[in-house]
Amino acid sequence: MMPTLAESRKWMAQGTALFFDALATLSDDDYAGPSLLPDWARGNVVAHIAANADAIGNLITWASTGVETPMYASADDRAQGIAKGTSLSPADLRAWLTSSNDQLVQAMGRLTDEQWLHEVKTVQGRFVPATETPWMRARETFVHSVDLGTGLSFADFPAGFLDALIEEICAKRGMAALPSQVAGAPAADVAAWLAGRPHGLVDAPELGPWL
Q: Is the pTM above the cut of 0.85?
């Protein structure tokens, strides 16, 4: 079951704070260092989160105006945003991240109850009510805060968020039930394993990347 709008907006705020807190521990030189994602520097992760705020902001514009506004202008647009992580300075990346996130929060705050129910299209081509967009943002900020490689783990996430994340990834991976090696394990390890991130499970089957 999808989390409520209130839950999603709360988790979005918590995930954003966690990401910014992790980022604050990095020096400018650290941006060029490797993240936990293959072939991504930490700067690429920052750029992705900044570009994702812009992309979800496009969906909020769609919900508020009724004018179709895709998340990304083209198939290459998402990749180009990530690539800015190695072409922009750390200061410029932080400025972009801050402004894009602030604009998204403010745009969401202006939506009426009716506009929250307007349908928009995700990058995967699904039509969903705008009420799903804070959950989309929460997923990105929480999971990618770990990818910055500052020592955070899925154990730093709220329990309710972990439960919702496990339910969603299981559904997207077509898992009717968790395998025996995973069932009953701590939720943080289960969610990390499902998301293709480092975990403490033993003998869990290998999964491909997610998000």
A: yes
